[in-house]
Amino acid sequence: MNPAAPPSRAGASVRAVQDPFHGDLLEVSMGPHHPSTHGVFRMIATLDGERIVRLKPVFGYLHRNHEKLGESTSYLASMPYTDRLDYLNSMTNNWAYALAVEKLAGQAVPERAEHVRILLAELTRLLNHTCLAGFLLQDTGCSGTPLMYAFREREAILDLFEALSGSRMMCNFQRFGGCRVDPSPAWMEAVSALVGRYDRFLDEYEELITGNEILLARTQGVGVLPAALAINAGITGPMLRASGVNHDLRRVDGYGLYPRFPFRIPLGDHGDTYDRYMVRMLEMRESLGILRAVLRDLPGGPIIDPKAKLRGFRPKPGEAYGRIEGPKGEIGFYLVSDGGPNPYRYRVRPPSLINLTVLEDLCLGHTVADAVIILGSIDIVLGEVDR
Amino acid sequence: MLGTGLLHGLKVTARNLVGSFHDPARMVTTQYPEERTRLPENYRNFPFLLGDDPADPLGTLRCVACQICEKECPPQCIYIVMERDEKGKAQKRPKVFDIDLSVCMSCQICVEVCPFDAIKMDQEFEIATADRFTGLLRHKEDLARSNAYYHQLHPTEAAAVDAALAEQKARQAAAKAAKAPAPAAAPLATPAVPPTPLPPAAPAP
Prior knowledge:
The structure holds 2 protein chains of 2 kinds.
Chain A: E1 12-18, E2 24-30, E3 42-48, E4 51-58, H1 66-72, H2 75-83, H3 90-105, H4 111-140, H5 145-165, E5 174-175, E6 178-179, H6 185-210, H7 213-219, H8 227-232, H9 238-242, H10 249-252, H11 273-297, E7 318-326, E8 329-337, E9 345-349, H12 351-356, H13 359-363, H14 368-378, H15 382-386
Antiparallel strand pairs in A: 1-2, 2-3, 3-4, 5-6, 7-8, 8-9
Chain B: H1 4-22, E1 47-51, H2 68-72, E2 78-84, E3 90-100, H3 109-113, E4 119-121, E5 137-138, H4 140-143, E6 144-146, H5 147-153, H6 155-179
Helix pairs in contact in B: 5-6
């Protein structure tokens, strides 16, 4: 094999690895700036012919000391930094962090705020899964169209976030004991309108692509994640449920007011890339059901506990772990307080990073083109992987 | 039958393509900078300082240089020095108030923690500059804006702030009146509050 004439490809370098027992292997370095890696992520794939025999993920390029920063700033000042973890889902990140601090401080949350939180979390789930469907299909080679359709709808949700919180993605919306802004009736109407037409978009999207034979050929049976491995590796979120494990923190923990709102949990049969895609499409339909119920039941009252302190927040010594079912999996914040104004220990449980740990197991035996789809179906955001 | 899924998909793209010629709802892009969308009222970008006098906002800044926002700012982009007279007595106004916009992350925490409603969020976003060192460093001279400007940006919020301030002022005046003994009735005729009335709320654009 002649390594001197590799296919020229932006972002990938190719060199030969000598292996006396198994002919020649190729080591392909994809990233850290390869567009299919969804950010600054690097995969070093060792190929035997077309097949991947080893895959080493390299991350940390986007490390920005999030956890240590959290220990050196006040509880409130960490809130906008949590937006920047998984920058698609700032609302759920905010909620998980607020939940941890509220547990730590024993802070109550008014009903209206709990409803608004569920509303925003489910909108975030729609946003994330819509984006993922677009990106995943872009990775399979459906160049442009599905991504543009997905982004058209994502833009509508981001407009709602912007109208409410002032920023499209860095919402910084939750506060300890409630939410920052009380949504106006006009905003609620805009949400109702969006929820009302989202089903139609999902129908259109599924008609566009879900039955597409090329998509089925590319995704079915690719990157199979067995349920046992998923559990052992600590996989959470839609990826775990695509492997057939019925575990959803909204049901298991019943945090917030989720027990009041009925919803079904879609499960996959095979744990392949197609199941991971379908589970997310079905989850969006369930989210719409929850959204309708929340919009119907939204009570009045204060949006934030009037006794909640904004500044000079000093919880009693202790520890707390707040976790919620984020769109990507279990997002959790572990906090230890020594009674001071800053957390003594601040730790994030990032679903993207932990879901990424099985990447090699999923990719073995597949081609590089499949590895791209598998990575896309894991649904990572490098802001959260590297923190 | 093999291929029907493909054809179904093509039908959707064809519908969108044809629809984009006659259905404005399918035209989702805006030709910036020729066309602009209206920013929502809550939109926030970078902070500015509020002054009460519309003619001289810089001279009548509400800021008392208490430095709470400086302490609470997560990325530490605010720098404040309090004004002092020649004897070293604090003057309750900022001598220096700098915000480095290249550090600011638009989180609005300074606005939330300010007890004097002196700092608010601007909506100006076209601030690109070729000067990478001081081009985005804003001094209090650049940051001062009038209340009318605030009303223009955030009409609902500004009206609520003005109402709260007026109520606070009335309460203080009442407390002062209650504290003052009966013989002091004559001096009470003069207003106890500083003579800087809030400008009338500008109508929303």
